[in-house]
Amino acid sequence: MENHNAKVLFNHAATLNLHTGNLVNRSRLKKKCPSSPSEELQDCIRATLTEWCSKLPPALDKELPNTLECTFTQATDAITPEEREELKVSVKLFLSGSDCTSIRNAVDMACSGLGVSMLDSVIIAPPLLPEGEGLALGHLQPLWKELESLVQSHKVTAIGTSDLDKALLEQLYLWAQIKPSSNQVNLASCCVMPPDLTAFAKECDIQLLTHNDPKELMTASGFQEAVQDSIGEPLVTEWFLEWVLRYSVIVKSRGIIKSKGYLVQARRSNSHDQ
After folding, report:
1. Cα–Cα distance between 89 and 97 in angstroms, integer?
2. What residues does 92 pair with on adjacent strands?
């Protein structure tokens, strides 16, 4: 599919903010069962951009925006103050780089998009490291400080980690001012919970959760492919993901998912140099 106005906008803008809206409400996506979280995200980006392209006006303003706001408006459910206490809003944040301001930026966008002042839980997935480099406490500390500041400013209630082994979880726990409330474990990589991790988590009241996310939720080429499919623009190789935030809103008393979706931020690589 080609869209001339979308191409013009993408070639000018420096930042893309995308919100898939509530996937529970999107019948077209529900008909297809994705084989993985990565495929689901790629399908969602493609569908949201396609919808956004179809709603662009025939004539663009002379002042082109530096930030593109792509939202699936019909499927976006803001939470009303009356129902807020009945709901738990949990997010997992996948970082592509080590810029700590991305954390606050993502949390602010999630609160704004969902119509809440605070998130109940944020789990962070650190950025993928270069081949041969192992995750260490030094990688986590600046990210965790940013999460702690969000708890202190009442933007987030509980903060958690993903894929930490017992040794690293213990190091973070002993160093942190605000302790991790949870740690996600990928059962595809270990099949059963490691006994030392289970014992430590129980002792320190850390909830162990399971997940099936790959180490890199979306590759640069996977993101660029989704954008190119939607707008037919060959220059999308200049665009890179900054972060992906996946949210779920659960009705506490019934344990059912009221809404779930993704927020995505991407930047054009040469915009960093401007």
Report:
1. 24
2. 123, 246
Q: How far apart are the C-alpha atoms of 40 and 42, rounded to whole Å?
A: 6
CA dihedral of 210, 36, 101, 174, whole degrees rounded to 10: 20
Which two three-digit tokens encode residue 247? Answer: 């949210």
What is the pLDDT at residue 231? 84
Sequence-distant (6+) residues with CB within 8 A of 29 are 23, 43, 44, 47
Per-residue pLDDT for 151 more than 60?
yes
* 0.85 exceeded by pTM: yes
Closest by alpha carbon to 112, among 19, 242, 246, 248?
19
180: nearest Cα among 192, 172, 188: 172
Q: What pLDDT, in 10s, does the model give residues 110-125?
A: 999 999 999 999 999 9
Per-residue model confidence (pLDDT) at position 274:
40
**Residue 157 DSSP class:** E
CA distance 116 to 108: 10
Contact 44, 226 (CB under 8 A): no
Type of residue found at 213:
D
- Over the stretch 9-32, which tens digit does the pLDDT of each residue have? 888 899 999 999 888 876 555 556
